[in-house]
Amino acid sequence: MILLGKRPPILGASNTGAGAQTLRVFLSFLLFYALLVLYTRTQSSRDPGSAFFRPWTAYDASYSAVRLDEADRYIDSVNNNNGTAPKPAKASPQPGLCVGIASIARNGIRYFRSTVGTVLEGLSEAERADIHLVLFIAHTDPAQHPAYNETWLHEVADRVLLYEPDKVNVDYIRSLETDAARVSGREKALFDYTYLLQACEATNAPYVVMLEDDVVAQDGWYHRTRQALASAEEQTKKIGASKWLYLRLFYTEEFLGWNAQDWPIYLAYSILAAAFVACVGLGLRQHRPQLHAHLPNETILLLTGVCTPLMIGLFFAAGRVTMLPIPTGVHQMPRFGCCSQAFVFPRARVPDLVELYRARHLGYVDVITEEYANANNEIRWAVTPSIMQHAGRRSSKAMNDDPAGGLRHKSKSEISEVGKLWNFGFELNDAAALRAEHSVVLGQGG
C-alpha cells in the first residue's frame, strides 16, 4: 500500500541530478577559464615562449629609448664642451673593472657612441674612477670608423686601442676586413675579442667587462654589477669551488622556454596533477558525506579529465618565463644563456680564454666559450634582471644587415636572428625608480 504524500522513486532521477550538477560545474569553470585566459594574455605578452606573445609590442624599446636619449645627451655635452666645463673623469691607477668595447663601422647606423654613453652617463666620480675604459677601434685604418675623428671618443676613454704593428700582423688583419671574409667566417671578430681581452688584462683590474658595441647599460649598472660579482664570489665559495668562468650581464629569454627534451618530465607532472585532483575529489566525498551530492562521479570525471587538462594546457601556453620565472639575483646558467653581448671575466681566467680563442682561431666567442665551459664543467653565473640590453638591430656584417626600424612585427618570423637577441624584461625598467635606487646607493657611499 502506498502511503499518502509518498511517491515511488522516479527512475533516473539521481542521474539527472548528477548531470545537472556537473553541467553547472562545467559552465562555472568555463566562465572562470575564459577570465583566466584573458588575464594570462596580458601577463604573457612579453614571454617569447608563450602562445600569447605579442611581438608587435614586446620588441618595443621602452626603457632602452629613455636610456639611449640620456646617453646621446651625455656624449653631445662632451662634444660641445668648449673648455668651460670640467673634462670627463678618468680611471684611478688601481681600477676594479676594466670595461672593453670593440667596434667596427656599420653600414648606415651607429650604436657605438650610444653604448659608451649608457656606460658612462650617471656614474659618480668614485664609480668612474673604478673603471678603466678601453675603446677599441677595430680597423687597420681607424679613420674608417666615424667615431675616431670625434672629440668624445678621446675625451671619455682611458685608452683608445688600435692595432699595434709591433704586436699584430696588420697586413693579415687587413685581409680579414673584406666583406667576403667577414661573411664567410668569424676569424677577425674572435681575434679582436682576444686582443681586447689582453689589453684589459694589462690594466691589472681584478675583473674584465667585455661589452659589444650595441648594448644599452641601465642606470646604476655599475653598482648592480659590483653587487652581482660579490654574490658570485660568495656563492662560489659556498659550493666549495675555487673559481668561476664568467658572470653574464645579458641574456635573452628566447631560449628559456619549455624544452622538448624534457617532455617526459612534463608528462609525468601532468599525470600527477590529474591524479591529485581525482584523489582530492574522492577523498572529500569519502570523508564528508554531505558533499556527495556536489561531487558525483560525473563531476569528478569532469574535473579530472577535462578541467585539469585545460588548466595544464594554459599553464604551458602561458610560457615558462611567465609561470616559472628566474628569481631576482645571481644564479648559475649552464644552459641556454645566449649570447656574448655582456660578460664579466675574473682577470685570473683571461689567460685561459686567450689560449682557448687563439687555439680555435675561428668561430663565435659565445659558442667557443660555452663548449669549453661544458667540457671543463665550468661555473657560469648570470644576473637577473639583466643589467644590459642588446639594442643592435643591424649586424656588423656588411652583407647581413637588418633594418634598424620597423619594430611592429606581426610574428617572430619577420624578425632577424640579430633582432631576436632581446631581453624583454629589461624594457619594463622604470627610469625614475632606477635613478632613485642609484642615488640611494651613492648616498650610502657605494
TrEMBL record:
Q: Which GO terms describe its molecular function?
A: glycosyltransferase activity
Per the UniProt entry, what is one GO biological process?
GPI anchor biosynthetic process
Q: Which cellular component terms (GO) are annotated to the entry?
A: Golgi membrane
* InterPro entries xref list: PGAP4
What keywords tag this UniProt record?
Membrane, Transmembrane, Transmembrane helix
Source superkingdom? Eukaryota
Q: Which residues cross the membrane?
A: 20-39, 265-284, 299-318
Task: From the Swiss-Prot or TrEMBL record, give the protein name.
Answer: Integral membrane protein
